[in-house]
Amino acid sequence: MKKIVVISFFALSTSFFTLCQAQYVRPSDGPPTTVGSTTNPALQSGGFGDNLSIGGSFGLYIGNTTYVGLEPLLSYHFNKSLMFGVGPIYQYISEDFGPYGTYSSSTYGARATVMFFLPEDLSRVFLMGEYDLLNVPEENFNTGYIYRGTLAMPMLGLGYKDQVTDKLFFCVYGLWNFNTSYFNPFTNPIINAGFDLGLWK
Asked: How many structural domains compose the chain?
């Protein structure tokens, strides 16, 4: 019997293939933010760390196919509408083909993301762009040997974030990957969910 475990939480980063850049918007210096508020409070003035959040997801699937995905993300809030994030990506997959043996491979690299939150009543909705640079296995179909190559993957999409506490947020988003390479490890559309935690005091 297959055993499936999927975990997504703020300290780690997919998804089945990408990590959620779960978003937050810091509360202002004024009255406390109401949980579930539909508006994005202004950012506080402070040091560099007061504008940071950490998020992402961890994916685990165990069975005839084993998958492990780790994609943490560190984000910087320029203001209440614009965020920029960076983080590493690591994915491992192993497939058991019975008498034909087992195939396993790893994909690793880095990504950069930009999120723009819409104003007013649509402040829970964000537009998202992501650029991944991954080292992936590539099979030479003439020789049968597997080499490694680098893929650049630009993506665009739309997401929704919801407030859990004054620091913790949940989000879900979808992305479309514009790289059409046969060796592209992502399948369109890419759907992801996760949490994010503000690092301000």
From this structure: 1
Could you tell me the residue range of the domain that residue 119 belongs to?
A: 3-198
CATH number at residue 59: 2.40.160.20
Is the CB of residue 163 less than 8 Å from the CB of residue 36?
yes
Query: β-strand 65-77 against 3-7: which pairing, if any?
Result: unpaired
Is the Cβ–Cβ distance between 170 and 8 less than 8 Å?
A: no
Task: Give burial (CB, 10 Å; 0-12/13-18/19+) of 37.
Answer: middle
- Nearest 10 degrees: CA dihedral of 178, 137, 107, 151? -30
Q: What proportions of the chain, in percent to the nearest 5, are helix, strand and coil?
A: 5, 55, 40
Q: Among 2, 12, 36, which Cα is nearest to 192's?
A: 12
Q: Tens digits of per-residue pLDDT, 76-110?
A: 989 889 999 999 999 998 888 777 777 788 899 99
Q: Which two tokens stand for residue 82?
A: 């614009």
Confidence band of 45 (pLDDT split at 50, 70, 90): low
pLDDT value of position 43? 53
